Structures are given as C-alpha cells and as structure tokens.
Amino acid sequence: MTPNAASSPSGSPGPSRRGFLASTAVATAAVAGGMPLLAACGGADKGSREGTTSGKDAKRLLPAYVASNVVTPDIPSKNGSSMGFTAKLDVATLKTSVPRKLGKGGKVTVMSPFWGSPPKQDNPYYTSMNALTGVDVQWRNQDGNTYDQKLGAVLASSDVPDVVVVPGWNMMGKIPSAVISKFADLGPYLSGDKVKDYPNLAAIPTDAWQRSLFGGKLMGLPMPASYVTNIVPLYRQDVFQREGYQVPTSPDEFTALCKDITNARAKRWACGDMKWTAFNIWGVFPGSDKPLWWNLVDGKLVNRVETDAYLEALEWTRKLFAAGYVHPDFKLGKSQATDPGAKFAAGEFLIYNNDISSWYGQRASQATQNPDFRIWGMDLFGPDGGDPTLWAAEPAGIFAFVNKKASESVVRDVLAVADVTAAPYGTKEWMMTNYGVEGTHYTIKNGVPVKNDRGNNEVNNAFVMIASPASTLAHPDFPDITEGQVTWQQKMGGFTRKTSFWGLQITEPSRYANLASNFEQLEDDIARGHKKISDMQQAVSDWKRQGGDKLRDWYKKLLDENGSAAN
C-alpha cells in the first residue's frame, strides 16, 4: 500500500517506485526565479515561493508532536526502523482512537494512484469508511503504473480534485512548483497546537511533517516511512536450507553462490537484477530523490554519479548478467516494469531485491498452495565483506494535498478522514482502514484476521494514501516476518547515515529539471551489456558540462547558507 513497507502496517504488499515505469511527468507551472524551495533548513523565511523555511519559522509551521499512548508496540523503533507488533490481534478488544466522528457529511473527491483493478465507488469498504469518518469520499483512482502522466496533466489543468495524492518519486521536475500553485496551506488547521484537534495526526513524527513544507507553508499530509533502505535482498530460505547454500557475506561470495546455483538447462538461475542491492553494497548515495544524490565529501559537494562506488556497483551488476546468473526475464528489462514474484515463488531464481513489503507479500501469497515456502532477507555487506555504509531514505514517502480552492468545510472533512486513516495499529479505526468489514472483507481464523478475495481487491491502495500512522510493521498471520523485517531494519539502521540534504523538501531551478533524466535507463543498459561503463563516464562528463557543475554550485550555496542535515 506504500512505497515503503514500514508505512504499510496492514502487511499487504505495497506499490513501490520500483513498480513504476520510471519517468516523471512535468506540469506546465514554472518555478519562479530559480530560487530554492527548502523546508526546515537554515536561513530566513522570505514569505514567498523563492524562500527557505528554517529555525523558528519552521517550528512555527510544524504541528506539535504528541505521541500516541493508545497502543504499545511489541518491538519499539530503533535506528530509524519501523515499530513492530507481533502479538495476535484481538479484534474484540481493539481500542478507539477517534471517539467522536469529525466529518460533517460533505463530499470530497480524491485522485490517487491504484495498483490493480479499482473497485466500484459503492463497494462496502468505501461506504463503511465513509460512514466511519462522516465524509462522502469519492475516489478517482488512476493506474499507478502511469500515474505520473495523469498527475502532470491534472496539475496543469483547472480541473483539480479536492485531494490529490503525490508519491515522493513523482516530486521531481516542476511538480513541486505545481504543488505550491495548486494546493492549500494547512498551517491554519494543523500548525503548532492546532493539530491536537486531530490526535492521530499529532502522533505523526515531526520529520515526516518537515517533508510536507513547500514554499514556506505546511501543505502535505504525509505517509511516514522508516528511513532505513526499503530495498532488501530477499532469498528462498527453504531452498537454501534444502540445498545447503550459505547466505553470502561479501560480493565475491555472492558471485560464487550464483555460479553454484545457476543451471540454465534446468531452468534455474541465481538471481534477478541486483542493481539496487549493488548500490547499497558500494554505499552509493540514494537515487529516489534528487537532493539525496548530493553529499558533502571531504569538503566538496559530490553527486552520486561522479563517485567510483557508482561505477563499481554498475560493473558488478553487469558481470552478474554477463555470466548468465540473472533470470532471462530481467535481461529483457522487465525487472522494473513487472513483478517477478511468480517466478521467484516457482523457484526459477532464488534471490532478488525488492521492497521490504515483498518479504511478507510473497510468504502470504504462497501460504495455501505452497506451505513449505519460506523467504528471508539477507543482511547487506560492504564491498570488502565488512560493514556496509547505507544512506537514509526520506522520512515520508507519499503526500496528500488539498485543493487551494477548497472551502474550510472541505478541508476540515479531509482532516477528519486523515485522522481516522492515521490511527495506530491495534485500534478500531486502523482495523477498518486496513482490513475493511469483518465477514465481508475478512474473517478471523485462529485469532488472526485473514482477507478474502473481496478484501484483497477492495481494501487496497485507497484510504491509507490520505495519511498514515508512524512507520509500523504488523502481520498478525506471520509474526515471524514482522520480527524479521523490524530486526533487519534495526541492524541495517545501525549502518545508516544521512546525506547533507536529508529530510529537506527542495525544488531545483526549472532549468535543471530534466538534467539527470536519462541516467536510470543508461544504468540498466550498462547492466544488460547494451552500453559500456565508458558510456556512463561520458554521460557524467556531459551532465557536468550541461549544468551539473552549476547545479553543484547552487546546492553548495544552499548548504553554506543553511547547514547540513547529516549527522
């Protein structure tokens, strides 16, 4: 349900940026003046789109944080991990976190990405949620795989719904400028103690709200996320145990294992496209948000594409393809367009990197037809087999924005819905948001709620997009997966650092909007042997000449004036 499973407490496998056809739509609104739009960084608030917000000004805009005491996690958050719940969910004793219905019965239209076949508007899940919140939410679900195109078109038009969901990976190009132009300032409703009218929103971590500051205003309702990388190298634990394979602890061991596993005649390959894991092994700066591409290294601001680690990670990935260890489907470029889970489950390959949500999703999907199926996550390691150097992901992954033209009553109704959808695990509101109606969408089996087919179709990709609680993992049917996921995050979190611009909402000048748009495709072409490392070196040289060096100066000035977010 989210791009980061730590934000997917229902345990359902969620959409990921990696499931998108990776391109970003650009709205027609222009960024004025080429000045930075920076949230919660140093510098004075100029009260305009060109300004920055920091210090006292940021504190004035951010909602007060009031931790929820409704439920207590079995595994507390540590090192940036999600919190985890492993105990069985007793539906009969669920707590109430929203004692009074806040919605006033108004109609609210919401445009949001949806992965799968959207249900009809009058389905029992939507109508039950509307009854719970007191708001008539009308969904304009759009295909998640092409959402970027729809988003750009809608933001460039005059027909903008009351609420528009914008995934963080679409927050590129001119989209942030369009956000500032089209959507409402929520500060008058949520800043400071005002948020206490909505206790579940008040319990959202401040870092997530910080990412919701655009152009000097509090504009987004965030979906909090663990800042530990959400990309896990997953492997078939059952097959490893049966065949006696050892989990690798270095790139060389990984390559040797791949050679041992691969038998093309038997239609078994070792792995999928391991590019994202390679980037983590070699400590490459994150690539999901452009400001994170930059980091201060020995006093110089460096972009990830300029580093030796970037090239070394690509070369290692290329060698896995060249040696024939990668399943043929990935050679066709399907690794980023489709879910390879079915062939992983069939044992055609034994290792692949995916969103942490797949750890649970694969296990759950195989529970009935293949009860011996087991999946687990490998610990990441460094290029020499030592500890890895990992880089923090952003503390919020998806945002919901309210139309600037919306009346106060509509804004209040949206916040009423958000206060319900942000309810913590173990509450009645969380149960309805994530499981739907008992008997219609799920049943209780051995004390565990289990969705039926209708639940899997209808209770999906919708209300959780409006707002979510602090990063949580909870799988009542497979508590061992919950423990494994959170433990993995905690361990990897111990090796995780923050880049200089972590947690800051920045809009680059429009003249640089598409400067790096071709790098991802070139990465994939190199991995598959269609291009060479020298082609990437040439592309980096061109990038620097065409604006990369000037963009570096722009970011460096921002850093000099405002300080680093790294710790």
TrEMBL record:
Keyword Signal in record: yes
Subcellular localization(s) per the UniProt record: Cell envelope
Entry GO CC: cell envelope
Highest taxon in the source lineage: Bacteria
Pfam families, per database record: SBP_bac_8
Keywords per UniProt: Signal, Transport
Keyword Metal-binding tagged: no
PANTHER family attached to this UniProt entry: ARABINOSE-BINDING PROTEIN-RELATED, SN-GLYCEROL-3-PHOSPHATE-BINDING PERIPLASMIC PROTEIN UGPB
Family: Belongs to the bacterial solute-binding protein 1 family.
Protein name: Extracellular solute-binding protein
Provenance organism: Streptomyces lasalocidi (Streptomyces lasaliensis)
